Structure prediction request, 230 residues.
Amino acid sequence: MNIAVLGTGMVGRSLAVKLAETGHTVVMGTRNVGTTLAVTEVDAMGNLPFKQWCENRQDIALKSFASAAAAADILFLATAGAASQAVLDSIGAELLDGKVIVDVSNYLEFTGSDPLPALKLVNTTSLGEELQKAFPKAYIVKTLNHVEHSLMVNPGMIEGGHNVFMSGDSEEAKVQVKELLLSFGWRQEQIIDLGGIVYARAMEMHLILWCRMYQMLGTGSFNFELKQPH
Ligand SMILES: NC(=O)c1ccc[n+]([C@@H]2O[C@H](COP(=O)([O-])OP(=O)(O)OC[C@H]3O[C@@H](n4cnc5c(N)ncnc54)[C@H](OP(=O)(O)O)[C@@H]3O)[C@@H](O)[C@H]2O)c1
Prediction:
């Protein structure tokens, strides 16, 4: 498949590598190709400048968000949550209508004074729902937003039946996304389909607990597993 990964951060990079390794044609999207390739410093999270990172990755192209989206069958939205809507707006409904958009983003606001980030869209809505409302003819599927980027594409790094959630209004779109999750290494029984995109709010609110565990463990390499009594 032709897949666009919108976002050049660590999530976009992990997804792009895995998708290319599993046989897809991958184009990554960014605001401005020249600006992204001109970065020479390691970022605050310790990520290599994009140009250095992609030196040995000739199989992954970098284009503007709109150019990346144009040729794609499926898009991954791996942008800063505050920018996710603006990124899709910049691409436009004409290119997005009828496409599956896998939303892995979280709209978190870090104030510095609060011990935990705040969700900007919460309780009665969510980023996933707002994106679906803004692009009613696209098929938003929320998944992987509550899993650290390396674990997203290598769930076997943690033993056991830890879970990944998904939500979306289109059953067909979710079937396609489930296929991709399976190709990443998730097993069928680890994938929990919560239902419609309205349940993206539960997945996004879960992030606050995730953030607290990250603070306590000092790493994002963990996940949660649903257990029930026998
Ligand atoms: N880090 C994780 O392990 C993890 C796990 C699960 C979910 N997530 C979610 O995944 C998303 C991506 O996370 P990340 O850490 O890889 O990267 P990030 O730093 O949150 O986002 C980087 C991307 O967002 C774009 N962006 C930032 N500000 C923008 C603006 N004002 N307008 C347009 N685009 C803008 C950047 O565009 P340029 O390319 O032009 O710079 C870049 O492609 C986030 O929503 C995050 O919450 C992260």
About this structure: The chain has a mean pLDDT of 97. Residues 7-12, 30-31, 36, 78-81, 83, 86-87, 104-106, 145, 147-149, 220 surround NAP (CB under 6 Å). The chain is about 40% helix and 20% strand.
